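[recover] target loaded
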């Protein structure tokens, strides 16, 4: 799947639409999810144009991958979920339920989150 430069997170990265920023460095941006599913719900995205975790792990440089996961840990600490626990979610592709085609991980916490995958 080709990267769509008009996806909503690309627009956030270009400053065309606002976000409630938590953290930014040379390689990553983190901001609050617009529709939180938990008391804490933050998204971490790479600044590079990667569609999904598939694309990122196959094509990103090591420095981007390292910075991204360092940022995930840092943001979890910043939003105060590391002590009580939290969940990182990376919905990927159609079966994964990915809606925005720019890699993002969700950091969710602030309450017990229940089963990892709801039973059908
Ligand atoms: P996905 O289903 O792709 O894993 O998650 C996409 C997430 O992006 C959803 O949780 C949704 O609430 C969030 N989202 C969609 N549009 C925006 C937006 O314009 N701003 C922010 N902050 N979050 C968004």
């Amino acid at each position: 799947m080709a990267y769509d430069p008009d996806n909503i997170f690309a627009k956030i990265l270009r400053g065309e639409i606002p976000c409630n920023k938590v953290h930014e460095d040379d390689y990553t941006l983190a901001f609050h999810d617009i529709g939180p599913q938990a008391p804490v719900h933050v998204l971490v995205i790479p600044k590079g144009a990667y569609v999904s975790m598939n694309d990122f792990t196959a094509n990103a440089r090591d420095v981007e991958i390292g910075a991204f996961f360092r940022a995930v840990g840092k943001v979890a600490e910043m939003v105060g979920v590391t002590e009580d626990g939290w969940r990182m979610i990376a919905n990927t592709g159609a079966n994964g339920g990915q809606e925005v085609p720019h890699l993002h991980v969700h950091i969710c916490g602030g309450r017990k989150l229940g089963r990892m995958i709801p039973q059908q």
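[recover] notes: The mean pLDDT is 97.
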